[in-house]
Write a structure and sequence with these properties.
434 Repressor (Amino-terminal Domain); 18 helices
Length: 402
């Protein structure tokens, strides 16, 4: 639905800006991209009329307020942090943070739009209990998720808000994208800020990824997953799986795990309703890759829909879980090797290499999947270690090493 409308007042202007934020990632050539161009032109024209005068620079505004109030640099320290920081701000060597802007606006009455340097932008509300500097910014820089810069801890709020904007929309508040409850297999040692950062990165990546097809609710079932599992028999099966899912409008995002996330994978959806599977590949084994992929697909097929607004995050080394986790396990196992076939094969009792290869051939899947199931069922992870595909996953995903 197009939103073309003349902008005649601030209410129209705010509505148009909100619509632009919604359309910001529209694909070139799409109707939404044309709408985005028109709206951007209308907003620009309105702002030239509504805000005809150039705003003073933040530094000029601060110096003017100091002159008005007879203030010295030391008088600004309570709002900026220290005399050294005040000196760096006034000399242009340091940028104002949102925390500083709020303090200068509240205590010295300097308009926020001047300090932000954007007449149409409002100061975002503070989030009670949010400790922006607790996000693992250094690790995120090292992974290339955010740009390297000076004073990143001081600018944590701005950095994370930008990531939130790309992940879930700029109007969204940074609410947790998971909950520590019985909906997830979350390690008790998990850092909630690291986990949220990972989820945000996965969503932002998914929203910027062009998929080959569109998603149709209900397409993911055991038959769909069984067909997908047969790609494991090919040498480049993991890469083929990503391409296969793309044709059905499902994004597979490979993203390294952050410290203290203890994470294998997650199932979620974008604000546009597109399903997303995130995987860390922290264990570079074929058996782990295919089971984790099927487990997250099962969550999409059984538990996530456009109205659920749920995210499932999984540490698959944990055996506990609620009914939904057990249901996802059941679908994953059934899609890879049906229970009846597994029981009839007798392989759990006689785990020979010959039987592993034979069952894999019958099911048209990678032997690593069979070997991995045997190890899991018998609780012996030294068994068949040469057959689980160690070191055979990450090489298919250049983005993992990037």
């Amino acid at each position: 639905m197009s939103f073309y409308k003349a902008i005649q007042n601030d209410t129209d202007h705010a509505a148009a800006k909100a619509r632009i934020e919604f359309l910001i990632n529209a694909m070139p050539g799409a109707p939404e991209a044309n709408e985005l161009d028109v709206l951007s032109t209308l907003v620009e024209a309105y702002e030239k009329i509504r805000f005809p005068l150039d705003l003073p620079s933040p530094v000029d505004a601060i110096k003017f307020r100091m002159e008005q109030g007879g203030l010295k640099q030391r008088d600004l320290a309570p709002y900026i942090g220290s005399s050294a920081k005040v000196s760096e701000i006034l000399s242009g060597k340091r940028q104002l943070t949102l925390k500083m802007i709020r303090a200068l606006n509240e205590h010295l009455g300097i308009p926020a739009e001047v300090l932000i340097k954007d007449p149409a932008r409002k100061l975002p509300p503070q989030i009670e209990g949010m400790e922006w500097a607790s996000f693992p910014l250094t690790a995120m820089v090292n992974l290339g998720w955010i740009e390297k810069g000076r004073h990143i801890k001081e600018h944590a709020e701005e950095i994370v808000r930008e990531l939130i904007g790309r992940a879930v929309g700029t109007n969204a508040l940074p609410q947790p994208h998971y909950r520590k409850n019985d909906q997830n297999r979350i390690n008790a040692k998990t850092d909630p800020y690291a986990l949220q950062a990972w989820c945000l990165h996965v969503l932002a990546t998914a929203r910027s990824t062009r998929l080959e097809g569109g998603y149709v609710q209900g397409v993911v079932n055991i038959a769909f997953m069984t067909d997908l599992a047969k790609l494991s028999a090919f040498q480049d099966g993991p890469r083929l799986a990503k391409e296969y899912l793309s044709r059905y409008g499902i994004a597979l995002v490979i993203a390294k795990h952050l410290p203290k996330t203890h994470l294998d994978g997650a199932a979620m959806e974008t604000i546009e309703g597109g399903p997303v599977i995130g995987m860390t590949l922290r264990y570079d084994r074929l058996d782990n890759f295919w089971f984790c992929l099927m487990h997250e697909l099962a969550h999409i097929g059984r538990h996530i829909d456009s109205s659920s607004n749920q995210i499932f995050v999984d540490d698959l080394t944990l055996q506990d879980g609620n009914d939904k986790e057990k249901e996802a396990d059941e679908w994953a196992e059934e899609a890879l090797i049906p229970k009846a076939v597994w029981k009839q094969s007798g392989i759990e009792q006689d785990a020979s290499q010959l039987l592993v290869m034979e069952l894999a051939r019958r099911m048209k899947i990678a032997p690593a999947i069979v070997a991995g199931r045997v190890r899991h069922k018998r609780g012996n992870y030294r068994l068949l270690s040469k057959h689980v595909g160690n070191g055979e996953v990450r090489k298919h995903f250049p983005e993992y090493e990037g």
